[in-house]
Design brief:
The protein is mainly beta. The chain contains 9 helices and 36 strands.
Amino acid sequence: MSLFGGKKRTVRPDYTGLQVQTASSALPIPIVYGTNRIAPNIIWSDGFQTHAQRGKKAGGKGGGRHGVTGYTYSTWIMFGLAEGPVQGIGEVFSGQSVTPFPTNFLSLIPGDTPQQPWGPALARYPAAALPYNGTAYLASPYFDLGTSATISSVAFEVVGRLAGTAGPLGQDADPAALISDFLTNAQYGVGLPASALSGAALFGASGDSSYQTYCAALGLGLSPALTDAETANAILARWLRLTNSAAVWSGARLRIVPYGDQVVTGVTHAGASITYVPDVAPVYDLTDDDILAAEGDDPVRVARSDPYGLPNVQRVECSDRSHGYTATTVEARDQGAIERYGLKVGGTITAREICALSIGRLVAQLALQRALYIRNTYTFRLSWEFCLLEPMDVVTLTDPRLGLARTPVRITAIEEDEDGLLTVTAEEFPRGTATAAAYPTVGATGSAVDRDRAPAPVNAPLIFEPPAALTAGVAQVWIAASGANADPYWGGANVWVSRDGASFVEIGTVTGAARQGVLTEDLAAPFGPNPDRDNTLVVDLGRSGGTLASASEADARDGVTLALVGQELVSFSAATLTAPHVYALTYLERGLSGSPTGAHPAGTAFTRLDEAVFRYSVPAAYIGTPLTVKLQAFNMFGGAAQDLATCTPYTVTPIRSGRFGPVAETLAVGSGADLGLASQAATRSDDLGRASDPYPNGLDLGRASA
């Protein structure tokens, strides 16, 4: 047993192999466009390794011994990611921690076709060194499994195909290039020939009506991560809905046509100005003479939606990239419709390919306007002479019975019967409803929490030996610490002590930040007895982020607000905030517990002595022995402890400050004591401490005449 306790025990490894939670050989290979978060699939592992952790353990007269304190584990591993090539990896999400990719000892094999096998595996495990052509994966010869030999919930931010071509920060994919690649890519695409896409409708430049120009002018960008089996038709329909567009077959080519109905000028992610000019000129002016109808039938039939049943609140569920891709809902509201018809919430649109909330808000607004303001649907029949009409064309209708006079409508569907007659369905075309302004949007979630975030080291701590009056006569050392720069993630510090400066033993924990600061103005010595009403103690607690509160004068006299200024113990009654973290303290009780009073210049250390102070009762064997103290900071979650080797060492020598020895204790209580003859050897003695002790105790032995 040592002065700090502890028993000898044998530590053995708990695991001899990787504890795999889930693995599958039947998952589809994801396709990632833009930048999004995906979970990997383990495609190979081997080379499980056990690592003994050695350190100082309690036991023995020297304050501890070296031995195995536990085990950590690692393994060779490959994580399958997505169809390649990908551009890179951003952050790594492991459990509740977020770390940059370079700190995880992983190598990215981007997924080229062809690509070489991973070099280290080729040398060590040649049978497992497959090239995995066209598949991006991560590999490591030393993947840290911690103490559980288990891979925790892990995900990676993948910078995938077309990333950097759209979006507010250039992290998303251009929807036009995305759709083209998805439909025509020979490796993983739908297989549509490139010649079957209308390039003029899909791609363009500023000043035209192309889909690419429309998305760029509005700032639309997508980052889909296709991780589940889904029909291509459903995927394409979702992307078109999110970008307010429609797909139309024109002859033998597929055209993507935006619903945009007004000129829009925006700025691309690269900072260039771009303008979308819609092509919404009517191609025909249709009258009753053009429309086919049986005698007695209405040439144009109209269906009107009930405004009381239309949604006036539209929500879109996005992935918030700024908060670890958490699911976040944004919404658009039409306050006028809410006040007139009552609150009607539409079905939530799931759009996890939207990772910028500003884009999600714009998509919600466009969807709301389309659902709320396009209420009338028209149906009419035309002869084969109008066979060049296509969906998304704009025509005008004139029908006096319906009050239509060259009213523009947009065709949404055309059906041809066996006689060549065309049944046309069109929707009303109120200009401006297919255009919306983008507004900044803040997610509903708070900041992403990184439970493994490294805390700041401690500020210069207070380490002092208090007077006996504060410790009930027990020899103690008090330690007050706080995180540098008032770090909000700082949670406390483990206290380690060494007698030789090399071998350290943990003796306790600082569990809260002390209120530390410095004087910003000189404090003069008191002019008379307590209380000191003449001087003001001005202190800045910015380094620790501390706060002070006022107390009654009686509390000040009783030392409830006790603080240490230099070596003087003081307390205060009134605490007035004069600037951020700066307090003016008045009604001062000076020189408490026999501490020396005096003047203190600006810059003198100030520490509030409260429950945040760590109190260590010093063993008798340590009195007079120089001790080295290290304070190992950890974060607010109790993790990410600072490497002890990097902690600043502090030295203190306990001197049993102000404590009575056995002789003085006998005299202090007024008991008689026969100390023997002067000619005899002394049997009892006292160590009266050092003359430099700032907290001496006096002993009144009465008068010689008594």
